From TrEMBL:
Keywords assigned by UniProt, alphabetized: Membrane, Transmembrane, Transmembrane helix
Protein name per the record: PASTA domain-containing protein
Superkingdom assignment: Bacteria
UniProt key word Transmembrane: yes
Lineage of source species: Bacteria, Pseudomonadati, Bacteroidota, Flavobacteriia, Flavobacteriales
Membrane-spanning segments: 12-34
InterPro entries, sorted: PASTA_dom (IPR005543)
Residue ranges occupied by any PASTA domain in the UniProt entry: 40-108
Length: 184
């Protein structure tokens, strides 16, 4: 009985009202503080940085009070200048707060070097061509050479010079195939 009497007493109800008022004031105060501290609704638009080199990108971002971080370079794209921006996150036109990092992917200076795989000689042309194309090479001239194995690849050449397994060539290089004609 004393418990119910205490719950409905004037002192308890007064303390309950004071606690509710303090809670509401604290929550309202915290929300106002966060609104001011986080610069709510104060944003800048992310510029389009594609095809710009890093020195120009730095100037643009500094003017807008933004920062940058370079991610690992991507595959070489001949439509973009070397060391220029290929991609960015967040995308151009997005609204961000000041001092936000913009993540950039840069275009390397050229194609990567790809190693010529082993065991391409004495295989058929039908086996060798897709392998080279899958590695990013282009097939150039087919040079026929007298050999007993008709259609077998006898060797590979690049710009007139013989290339061996393990040699490295830039991706998209043209490789000529020396193929047996079956005349022996």
């Amino acid at each position: 009985m004393k418990f119910f009497k205490f719950i409905f007493s004037k002192a308890f109800l007064l303390q309950l009202i004071i606690a509710a008022v303090v809670t509401v004031v604290l929550v309202f105060g915290a929300l106002k503080y966060l609104d001011i501290k986080t610069d709510h609704n104060e944003t800048v638009e992310v510029p389009d940085l594609s095809k710009f080199e890093l020195d120009i990108v730095d100037k643009k971002l500094e003017e807008m009070n933004l920062r940058r971080e370079v991610l690992d370079s991507a595959n070489y794209n001949p439509n973009y200048p070397p060391y220029s921006v290929l991609d960015q996150v967040p995308k151009p036109g997005k609204q961000v707060k000041e001092n936000r990092k913009i993540y950039l992917t840069l275009n390397p200076s050229g194609y990567i070097d790809v190693e010529i795989p082993k065991d391409l000689t004495r295989k058929t042309r039908r086996q060798v061509e897709p392998t080279l194309i899958a590695l990013g090479f282009q097939i150039g001239d087919i040079i026929m050479k007298p050999d007993i194995a008709k259609g077998a690849v006898l060797g590979l050449r690049h710009k007139g010079e013989t290339i061996e397994a393990g040699d490295k060539l830039p991706k998209t290089s043209t490789i000529d195939l020396v193929v047996g004609d079956g005349s022996l």
